[in-house]
Amino acid sequence: NIQMLLEKLKGIPQLEGQKDMITWILQMFDTVKRLREKSCLIVATTSGSESIKNDEVTHDKEKAERKRKAEAARLHRQKIMAQMSALQKNFIETHKLMYDSTSEMSGKEDSIMEEESTPAVSDYSRIALGPKRGPTVTEKEVLTCILCQEEQEVKIENNAMVLSACVQKSTALTQNRGKPIELSGEIVDPLFMDPDLAYGTYTGSCGHVMHAVCWQKYFEAVQLSSQQRIHVDLFDLESGEYLCPLCKSLCNTVIPIIPLQPQRISSENTEAVGQLLTLEQWIQTVLARIS
């Protein structure tokens, strides 16, 4: 410590000639020390106030920025909604004739459905089976083809739609496991099983819908690409196997989707058939077919 050394030098009698200079240096030390302490206090005070001011300014800036972004988002939403409204109005004006015809057709269909759903005799409305059964109203079923992505209502007059499916032999309920299929001497009908349930038919579907035409084109394309490839596929194309285009599950057939149709049975015809074909005659016919 230079200051301590100067204090010691000041007390030495041999350095009496340099005593005034040592005293002046010590005074300068004190003056510089006081100036330094004062400047540190001022700097600390100013830095503290400046930091507070900077925090306030930053907070105000962030608040203003958030407000500006919220306002910009609101204006953007208003602009998009105005554009959508203008497009809708333009589309409706462009296809005004189509909208008018659609509204007329929907009104006619609603009236027809109400007429069909209203039974002629209220007493027959709750009869489910028999010649006096009440009317049935089919529900509208709209499906999407996984190949062409076209939506279509399932109707007889529309294009046929199918489900990808897999049919295979099953022994889940067998009581005679390991029994061979005897093809010699008799015709085996896979739809009818022996009483011992040696083997049966299992049909499963992944539930994906296709147009019959789209599926046929897809299957032909798979066959063509398989012939051109060198490596062996994991499924047997000769047996009709293929992979579902969507979930890649193994399939070997398709199941046609049959639309629901309201059944209208004439009471007169039903009563006539009931008189000609009695229960005893029906039982005799079944026994004759079984024998």
TrEMBL record:
Pathway: Protein modification; protein ubiquitination. Keywords: Ligase, Metal-binding, Transferase, Ubl conjugation pathway, Zinc, Zinc-finger. It is an enzyme of class 2 (transferase). It comes from the Eukaryota. The keyword Ligase applies. It catalyses: S-ubiquitinyl-[E2 ubiquitin-conjugating enzyme]-L-cysteine + [acceptor protein]-L-lysine = [E2 ubiquitin-conjugating enzyme]-L-cysteine + N(6)-ubiquitinyl-[acceptor protein]-L-lysine. The keyword Zinc-finger applies. One of its GO terms (biological process) is ubiquitin-dependent protein catabolic process via the N-end rule pathway. One of its GO terms (molecular function) is ligase activity. Its EC number is 2.3.2.27. One of its GO terms (cellular component) is cytoplasm. Belongs to the E3 ubiquitin-protein ligase UBR1-like family. Ubiquitin ligase protein which is a component of the N-end rule pathway. Recognizes and binds to proteins bearing specific N-terminal residues that are destabilizing according to the N-end rule, leading to their ubiquitination and subsequent degradation. This is E3 ubiquitin-protein ligase. The lineage of its organism: Eukaryota, Metazoa, Chordata, Craniata, Vertebrata.
